Amino acid sequence: MKLSVLINNFNYSQYLRACIDSVLSQAYPDFEVIVVDDGSTDDSREILASYSEQIMAVLKENGGQASSFNAGFAVASGDILFLLDADDAFLPGKLAHIAEIYDRNDIDWCFDRVTTNEGDQPAAELQVTLSDKRDTLRRGGFPSLPVPTSGLSFRRSLLSQILPMSVAKDVVLSDNYIKFAAAYLGRGAIVETPLTFQRIHASNRYTGTSRAKTLRPRIMIATGLELARRYDGLHSLGKSLVAGGIAETTSLLKLRSEARNAVVGGPFGDDAVNEVALMAARKRLGNMLRRGQS
After folding, report:
1. Number of domains in the chain
2. What is the DSSP secondary-structure string of the chain?
3. Which enzyme class (predicted)?
4. Are 181 and 122 found together in one domain?
5. Mean pLDDT calculated for residue range 42-65
6. 35 and 162 part of one domain
7. Domain range holding 256?
8. Is the pTM of this model over 0.90?
């Protein structure tokens, strides 16, 4: 079984070598490393050139993380595909562990937890939980999948139903869209034992930054609209995500106007405006009560 690791990079030269080396040092017999550079202006491309034929470098104009996922997938040849942000790293043995989980189980995706401690090593035994959230998602339920981009892997047959995905230069459609789509399309596994190091630093575009508060509603709305547009069975979840995003940034008096702006012309149609507005109002009221507001 061949594995492909798709690393997406944009101006992370200070972390890039550690990321690539964490994959090249893996003890697995058959894998490829594909690094998509999304128009970096630092010395990332010089670093990539230094690896010669050890990696496949895809150099493109800046188009955002989603476009990097698409570009990496287009040239990958593996049966199992891993996503990895260039500021993160794989712990020793990750590829072999995940490959064995796919071998032993009839699953389409496998997500492993991350650690933020750089010196951590994987435990001798892994805790693996099989997961099938398809019915929950079809009923509009919200799946709990607290794993970032660098902990995600998929069978090619599943990821080909998700990628290519819509693109944006900012962080709009990214790991949440991929995770929810994967959980809707197939069954998977969660590795509760961390196999990935996630680096938290001042240059993070989303995780742990002040931008998260303003980006989160936009991500929720964009994710909900695109999931509903792409997959008929995710209309209920899509409406819930759109309503949640509206509720986080909009006063009660503006909810219907914002719902119309988000929904009309999208995958739901005019009839969904009132439904989404009411959902957003309930979420907004719930948020206010939890914060102790009147």
Report:
1. 2
2. --EEEEEEESS-HHHHHHHHHHHHT---SSEEEEEEEES--SSHHHHHHHTGGGSEEEEE----HHHHHHHHHHH---SEEEEEETT-EEPTTHHHHHHHHHHHS--SEEEEEEES-TT----SS--EEEE--HHHHHTTPPP-----GGGEEEEHHHHTTT-S----SSSSSSHHHHHHHHHHHS-EEEEEEEEEE----TT-SSTTSTHHHHHHHHHHHHHHHHHHHH-GGGHHHHHHHHHHHHHHH--GGGHHHHHHHHHTTSSS-TTHHHHHHHHHHHHHHHHHHHTT--
3. transferase
4. yes
5. 96
6. yes
7. 211-287
8. no
Share of the chain above pLDDT 90, in %: 64
Domain boundary among 197, 223, 256: 197
Flag whether 151 is in a domain: yes
pLDDT, tens only, 108-159: 999 999 999 988 888 888 999 999 999 999 988 888 898 999 999 999 999 9
Q: How does pLDDT run across 79-106, given as a tens digit for each residue? A: 999 999 999 999 999 999 999 999 999 9
Mark whether 180 and 267 lie in a shared domain: no
pLDDT digits (tens, 9 = 90+) for 11-28: 999 999 999 999 999 999
